[in-house]
TrEMBL record:
Residue ranges of domain SHSP in the record: 34-146
Family (UniProt): Belongs to the small heat shock protein (HSP20) family.
Organism listed in the record: Rubinisphaera italica
Protein name as annotated: Spore protein SP21
Superkingdom assignment: Bacteria
InterPro entries from the UniProt entry: A-crystallin/Hsp20_dom, HSP20-like_chaperone, HSP21-like
Amino acid sequence: MPVFRWGNAWGSMQEFEREMDRLLQSMNITMRSVRSARSFPAVNFYEHEDKFLMTAEIPGVQPEDLELSISSGVLIIKGKRQLEPAIPQDQFRRQERMQGSWERSLSLPERVNEEGLEAELKDGVLTITLPRAPQVAPRQIPVITS
């Protein structure tokens, strides 16, 4: 029967930590290959004092192929990258750039002023400005007795 000894507990923890590092390194390689095969654009999300900024890399996507919507604190970006018509599919030796339709949903960290939302597409980068909603002061609710 194994006996747990307090004096040897940290040695086991260090061994466990080394095993976890090894496991995470192998997952990172796997996750890297998954990330390169994704069918939606990568985004960056920035926080400023009075607004949020989101940027997405979408080269080759035309503004008319983009659709933005916001509802219940979720920003939804839909887009479509057209196929290259001059090149038949059977002639590709390698095709890494995504094509076709994609959709990305992002939960917003706070309420935003949906009326002030702006989007700009420039040089293949979509920039969405999301102004923060004004803070609502807590309201007192009177209790009525009958």
